[in-house]
Amino acid sequence: MFCFFKNVSAVLFSLIIFSGIALATVEKPLMDGDEFYFLACVKEGSAIWEEPSIASKEIRKATWMEYFITIKIKTDDQDRKWYRVGKHISLDEADAVGWMQKKDLLVTQTATKKNGIYQKAIVVVHYDQNKKLIAGAPIRHIPKTKAPSVGQDLTLLNIYYIYDKQEEIKADETFFLLGDEPEIINPLKPGDSIVGWVSKSRLFQWDTREAAEYDKATISKLKRKPVIIYENEEELKDLILGKKTSEQIEPLATESIQKETLYPSDPRFPIITKERDVNGVKMWNIGFVGDEVEGGPGSRKREEVATLSRMSNVVDILFVYDGTGSMKKYKDSVIEAVKQAKQASVDYWKQNFPGESLADLRFSIAMYKDYSESDYYRREGLQDDKDNKIGDFITKHKFSGGDDMPAVFNGISSALKDGAGEMRKESFRAVILIGDMGNMGKSNDPDPKGHNIDKIVGQLKANQCDFYAIHVASGFNHKALLKFENEAKTIAERLDEGTSEYIPMKDPKKVKAEIYDKVMDLLDQRYRLPQMLKNISKGRKLLGKQISGTILEKRAIDIMKRHGLNPDDFATKGVAAFAKGWVAPKEPGTGNRAMKPVVLMNKYEVETLIAILGRISRVKIENVKKGWMQAFEEVTGDDIDIDPEKGVPADIIKIHLGIPVRSGILNKSFTEIGKLTTTEITEAVKDFKKKLFLLRAVVNEKDIELKEDDKGDITYVRKGDKKYWFGTRGSERVWLDMEVFLP
Questions:
Q1: Does 377 lie in the same domain as 479?
Q2: CA separation (Å) from 24 to 70, 96, 106, 583?
Q3: Handedness of CA 303, 304, 307, 313 (dihedral sign)
Q4: Is beta strand 500-504 parallel, antiparallel or unpaired with respect to 465-471?
């Protein structure tokens, strides 16, 4: 179903001046009364056809956001919907232009809604789940990955509204058509409201309108501590339950208490999931927008960072391979994976990063067997492997043993010790362990060389290496096999999230694919790192976990430190990053409110809520059931009568305004409301009147204080002006404290 633009008169269109292009056919536009159905081209270069068929003659190409009015609608035998589009002449005449497919047109003047709430999105300015650098969100005039971007990339701090969604099947990509207003302000200039197509992967979808906001008033009033946002739910749980102290948990971010006022344009934190209760303390999962962090003047020349960004794209991979008898059948997979990774570094990456230096990818291989074997550890050092030495090394290896004392930890530890002097300062590093049994296999004896998980984790961290354990015999209830799983998982859990993984392999054929994917992932990140380092050299600071704690940021910091550069010496220039975190809205221990729930509303929605509360507040108590039903029918414009038994005011408000309603009386049916006592109705109406005063003050941009006299009458005292609204082109939005302003 398509929508039309309301309140457009014939007088408006008599003032429109066209380009003077002669059009062949004058036809009657499709209208609803004196209202036109407006359309806009959403794909630059979309075809306009002579007939509603792709087999007909193409008349011309439409331009981005070129507007039309609808003349006819038709569906062809392939179930494609076609629109006959034209330009306005009068209320009864339109210059027909031709036929266009619906998929090339925006057929609505408002953003899409879900459960009465406009669907919205926020640009993610950090790194996606594949750990690829995203400095912003490219805008396109065609929903395709290879379409050229237009203008500057979208950045954080704005809320965008979703108007359309289209899939690019071959690329397995979804695009959203975004606007910076919930409605197109001028249908003759839709490009003023519509931004363009943006990949879903660059966006955080926010389909509610509830967010969290720092309660700045309680900093001085209640002397509360700064809000701490934690990266993981378990970290906050441990703090609440007293299992850990705040000093033992590294925060994702900490509120700046120096900033004592939040302005309407300041970002709030979208609430992602419903609140959770732990030992009586509420927790929220929020979308976190990091505060800017000011750095020092810079103790080193920025040219040093720029030079670092121009270094070759190097990745060092240390394979640690179980050389016992049971592993012989996997050797071909490992050899082939190394070959494919080398070839991909030449072909795929050259194609996707034109102009970048060729990847410098090096491998080493360490084979371990039982301690009882004379050759329980052998290794081929890091090399580019042009001569296939890795493959020859594996092919010539004698696979044997494996039941008693496989020296897994010695293999990892020795490979790291031997490789430490070979790895380059600027490289991304990873240990890829491939095996089936855990350290010492079925034996319960201690490791003869004293190796343990603590030492392995320490070596991995000291060498800044990722750790990926590929378990080729998972899923079997065998003591030695379960030991590998437990040990690998424990090591992975002790390392930074995103830099380690236990990979169970029930299908041996997938070993090659897993190795290849991990190598390519690291190489991809190394290619994308230079842009981040260039940003630093231009004055943007690497923030690590202070803001988003992304994997790529951590790697960049590690590489800078290897070269003697302190990331904290470089100042930021308005960089804010987006992440997800966990927070307690009330300060654990004291119960002081630290964050408050707020709701995003448009001005006309606030005015609608005022109209509803105003009408039901004036209804006589003895006529409350009928009077309230009539008030809701008038305000919401329902075409059907509201059912007194099933109709619930809170549900109607949610459908029409998309806001939560906490009032107990509004969550009853109209019939139940009619049975309430006079006292119950009176108390509810008193609360509604308080909300009315406050909401009217918002619309009038006033700051007021409510007063209640001995008789229970509500009045207010004006304290001054207050800026509530933000936005552009008349479609204003406001953040309202849900506990204060909503019924």
A1: yes
A2: 16, 7, 24, 64
A3: negative
A4: parallel
Q: What is the dihedral of CA 92, 94, 99, 100, to 10 degrees?
A: -100
* pLDDT at residue 116, rounded to an integer: 72
CA distance 556 to 591: 39
Per-residue pLDDT at 508 = 67
**The Cα angle at residue 742 between residues 739 and 743, in degrees rounded to 5:** 105
Lowest-confidence region among 187-191, 365-369, 567-571 = 567-571
Domain boundary among 206, 224, 241: 206
HEC string for 166-232: EEECCCCEEEEEEECCCECCCCCCHHHCEEEEEEHHHEEEECCCEEEEECCHHHHHCCCCCCEEECC
Q: Is residue 558 part of a domain?
A: no
Specify whether 320 is located in the same domain as 446: yes
Query: 710 lies in a domain?
Result: yes
E runs forming strands in 560-683:
578-583, 595-602
Question: Is 571 within a domain?
Answer: no
The reply to whether 419 and 341 lie within a common domain is yes
Give the pLDDT confidence of 260-279 residue by residue, as tens digits.
Answer: 788 776 778 888 877 788 88
Distance CA 612, CA 634 (A): 9
State whether 618 and 683 are in the same domain.
yes
The amino acid at 511: V
Q: Is 141 exposed, middle or buried (0-12, 13-18, 19+ CB in 10 A)?
A: buried
Contacts of 79 (CB under 8 A, 6+ apart): none
Q: Which domain holds residue 524?
A: 314-528
- Is the Cβ–Cβ distance between 588 and 241 less than 8 Å? no
SS3 569: helix
The C-alpha R_g of the chain, in whole angstroms, comes to 32
Phi, psi of 718 (to 5 degrees): -80, 125
Model pTM greater than 0.70?
no
Is pLDDT above 80 for 450? yes
d(CA 436, CA 474): 7
Structure tokens, 368: 């371990």
Rounded to an integer, the average pLDDT of 573-585 is 66
Report how far residue 272's alpha carbon sits from residue 236's, in angstroms, rounded to the nearest whole number: 16
What CATH number does the domain containing 99 carry?
Answer: 2.30.30.170
Q: Is residue 308 in a domain?
A: no
State whether residue 666 is helix, strand or coil. Answer: helix
Largest CA distance in the chain: 97
Q: Averaged over 17-31, what is the pLDDT? A: 62
Last residue of a domain, one of 81, 106, 131: 106
User: Does residue 62 contact residue 46 with C-beta atoms inside 8 Å?
Assistant: yes
Q: Do 160 and 180 meet the contact criterion of CB atoms below 8 Å apart?
A: yes
Q: Are residues 516 and 382 in the same domain?
A: yes
| Nearest alpha-carbon partner for 322 in 381, 385, 410 | 410
Tell me the per-residue pLDDT of 610-664, one tens digit each, with 9 for 90 and over: 999 999 999 998 899 999 998 888 877 655 567 888 889 998 888 778 788 989 9
> In angstroms, rounded to a whole number, what is the distance separating the alpha carbons of residues 138 and 122?
13
**Do residues 698 and 732 both lie within one domain?**
yes
Task: Using DSSP, state whether 578 is helix, strand or coil.
Answer: strand
Report how far residue 304's alpha carbon sits from residue 427's, in angstroms, rounded to the nearest whole number: 17
d(CA 311, CA 534): 12
Cα–Cα distance for residue pair 438/206, rounded to 1 Å: 44
**Tally of structural domains, the chain:** 5
Tell me, yes or no, whether 184 and 86 share the same domain.
no
Kindly state whether residues 202 and 236 are assigned to the same domain: no
What would the pLDDT profile of 669-717 be if each residue is shown by its tens digit? 999 999 999 999 999 999 999 999 999 999 998 999 998 888 778 888 8
pLDDT for res 710? 80
- Amino acid, single-letter form, for residue 545: K
